[in-house]
Amino acid sequence: MKLFDVYPLYDVTPVKAKGCYIYDDKDTKYLDLYGGHGVISIGHSHDTYVTAISEQVQKMGFYSNSVKNPLQEALAVKLGKFSQCENYDLFLCNSGAEANENALKLASFETGKSKIIAFERAFHGRTSAAVSVTDNPKINAPLNKQHEVVFLPLNDLDSLEKELSTNDIAAVIIEGIQGVGGLDQGSTEFFRGMEKLCFAYGVLLILDEIQSGYGRSGKFFAFQHHDIQPDIITIAKGMGNGFPIGGLLISDKIKASYGLLGTTFGGNHLACTAALSVLDVMEQERLIENVNKVSSHFLNRIKEIEEVIIVKGKGLMLGVTFDFSVSELRKSLIFEEHIFTGGSSNPNLLRILPPLGVTTKQIDVFIDALKRVLEKIENKNKQLN
Ligand SMILES: Cc1ncc(COP(=O)(O)O)c(C=O)c1O
Asked: Going by CA atoms, what residue is nearest to atom 16 of ligand 1?
């Protein structure tokens, strides 16, 4: 058997990792400023995390959701306190798409309606309803296109109200900060207006914090920069630092009933242990403070690079834009400078999503490397012209 070939691959084979570094099979060391699509929160192979998972798997890795699991309760309490969302209930699942799928389903159960409002350039995952609210026709099969979805421009309260006033909407789903779409975000005025409008029309507001949550924006959740209270918050990526886990924080105005949602693997003992140790480390190492400190340093130093047009995003969820495609730049950063960065659906945007404990020195290494690579690309272009 061979692999179903859906991923274009860089010719690198990582075999171990520690903190902000990845090592390949030839023992070359790479600085990881991408965290495997924004997944690595507390750093690769953190000692606390490795010990907790190893000890748990020796005791018990999994049993189903038909018996008591105190680790799930401990996670709900700890996450509620740490994120200042104590008035929400937690449902655990396995991935970001699954979290959004359940959030949309719950909104539909709650309102008895099925149409969803999403935003232009949104990315919410690849499963049935989650991909239907993703603004990319190429990854929506005819099956997915059966969902009723309308895409609106960000920051346009008039078009939002017009759509809500049709009274056939179950939910509005929005990313705290857009990830794959290119780091655009709603303004505070927009988020607050949207919260009010959703409440007025009896529509649920779903905040997708799968990428922007878990401290990445400089607050636990990106929506907390706007002082709003969504009805459902979806989480994944940084939650398990690489261990597959996702979840929904559900406002206590939405009532649970047996069988309403469910999963075999979601909230298993190992996943909860991983998620608990992520929160422990975030607290002990004050990682959200570090995000704000390192982000300011990044934003100051990036000003030295005149090719940069604008830096989008917040905290350590940043998009550096140029007036050319960054594809060659990313390759040079990996193969010549040994630094991982990310792309997005905007070809001119370099995505920066490092582990939250990245240091200002590591950012300095990146800035110096970026200068060298840009100079080389410029010289090459001059020779060609
Ligand atoms: C904002 C957002 N929502 C949902 C998802 C889907 O998450 P997963 O790939 O874990 O299904 C992603 C993944 O990139 C994402 O960035």
From this structure: 211
Q: Does domain 47-284 have CATH number 1.10.10.10?
A: no
Nearest CA, atom 4, ligand 1: 124
pLDDT category of residue 267 using cuts at 50, 70 and 90 = very high
Check: CB of residue 313 under 8 Å from CB of residue 344.
no
Cβ atoms of residues 207 and 230 within 8 Å:
yes
pLDDT digits (tens, 9 = 90+) for 214-227: 999 999 999 999 99
Q: Report the separation in Å between the CA atom of 180 and the middle of ligand 1, taken as the mean of its atom positions.
A: 9
The closest of 120, 133, 136 to 185, measured between CA atoms, is: 120
CATH 3.30.420.40 fits 14-45+289-384, yes or no: no
- Please answer whether residues 170 and 111 qualify as being in contact, where contact means their C-beta atoms are separated by less than 8 angstroms: yes
Q: Where are the domains of the chain?
A: 14-45+289-384, 47-284
Ligand 1 centroid, distance to 38 Cα (angstroms): 10
pLDDT digits (tens, 9 = 90+) for 155-197: 999 999 999 999 999 999 999 999 999 999 999 999 999 999 9
Asked whether 319 lines ligand 1 (CB < 6 A), one says no
Q: Which of the four pLDDT bands, split at 50, 70 and 90, describes residue 382?
A: confident
Query: Does ligand 1 come within 6 angstroms of the Cβ of 221?
Result: no
